[in-house]
Amino acid sequence: MRHLSFGTAFLFFVLVFASSGSASAQRVDCRTVTDDQLVETLMTAVGAKYADQMEHINIRSKDRVVTLEGWATTKKVRSDIEKIIKKTKCVKKVVNRLTIGVGGGCGPGTKPCGTICIPIDETCNIGKGSKGD
Prior knowledge:
Blueprint: H1 6-16, H2 23-26, H3 35-50, E1 57-62, E2 65-72, H4 75-86, E3 93-100, E4 110-113, E5 116-119
Parallel strand pairs: 2-3
Antiparallel strand pairs: 1-2, 4-5
């Protein structure tokens, strides 16, 4: 896992553990959390439990609507990843496009992103933060 700055580590703590109900966690102003910060937090949270999945799962966010793309090894893993995302403070909605098992080649309008395919105009986040920097 990559090294996080104090600010990023604090944001991660606040976002992931907001469901605990602590007063400080409830004070996070989601309007100040950028999509990039949210993606970094989500990648860290998912990677903490499913590091072996991170090479074939892309997580992206636009206006705090999180999209998952790629594939998971089992239905349980797919469901668990979605639950991790949904429990994170500041996530408005989750669009889960994860399939089960290894996918095929990239079709029209898509591009490779790690071992998956994503829409050609979207950002690939696979490999960012999943290995030590």
